[in-house]
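User: structure tokens for this one?
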Amino acid sequence: MKVLRALCILLGALLSGAAAAQESATFSCPVGKADIMKYFVMNKSRRSQHYLTGSTNSVYTQVFPNEDFTPQGYWFWIKSPKAHGFDVKVFDRDRVYMRATELIWTDNTTFKRFTRDLPISERCVPEGQPGAEVRVADTRFDFYSSCRVYKSSTLGTAVNSLDAPELMNVGENVGQAWTRVL
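Assistant:
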């Protein structure tokens, strides 16, 4: 737990924009639409007890605020029990975004961060159907070492699509779950 707390403190500056004005009310989508957050992360009652372990990347999830699900916030996908390796995702009423990922697995002060959070999905997607394709031309990102920028790069145009939901056995102590592939 100390390692996780240290990771959260270390990345505090990275996340300062997302946490500033968080709302505590529960978010809901219009009729006929599903909140994609229900696919990206497990609900609050399951996430503390269920996670994916594996020989390559385990996935432990920490959501802020720790609710089901607020209009905006962020979450960590932590990829090992020692908190080495991470992804930072952000969400608001409109979309879900990629913010950052590890660079050197054993050094959480090294990471890549998008200059602007990269939209990867609409927040509300059609029930039982694929989500809309999200195209993003501005994919600039920075490389960090010791939490300081040392170079920049770009990916070119990003194209993200979201499959229709499918019941899958995701393994480990999670089991069967409705899943969408991004």
